[in-house]
Amino acid sequence: MASKMPHRDGQQNARPRPHNDEPQVAPRYACPQCGERRKRYLMWLSPERLRCLSCGATYTIMGTPA
Ligand SMILES: [Zn+2]
Question: How many Å apart are CA 17 and CA 49, to the nearest integer?
Answer without folding.
Answer: 32
